[in-house]
Amino acid sequence: MTYPFGDNGLLSAKELESNKPFQSLQVVKGKHYAVIPSENTLSSAVAYPDALSAPWTVEKLTPILAGAVAGK
Measuring CA to CA, which of 20, 32, 45, 66 is 20 to 30 A from 55? Predict the structure, then answer.
């Protein structure tokens, strides 16, 4: 799982996915990875977890991680 870190993200998903070292990873080759979108508050909830946001984060993150496990 990767996510842009910081208010505006250090890398966009497109920049990350076009990165040669990133592309060389076996999990990336098998499409078993997920990029957490930076356009919503999910990346912030992952980066700065707290007890109040945990249930919401799990709800939003579960389908993203399930897609990574399935190679989608």
Answer: 32
The pTM of this model reads: 0.71
| Distance of alpha carbon 1 from alpha carbon 58, whole angstroms | 14
- Using only C-alpha atoms, the chain has a radius of gyration, in whole angstroms, of 13
Q: Express each pLDDT in 12-71 by its tens digit.
A: 778 888 989 999 999 999 999 888 877 678 888 888 889 999 999 999 999 999 999 998
Pair 36, 67: CB distance under 8 Å:
no
Three-state DSSP at 47 gives helix
Distance CA 16, CA 44 (A): 18
**Which residues have C-beta within 8 Å of that of residue 28, sequence separation ≥ 6?**
17, 22
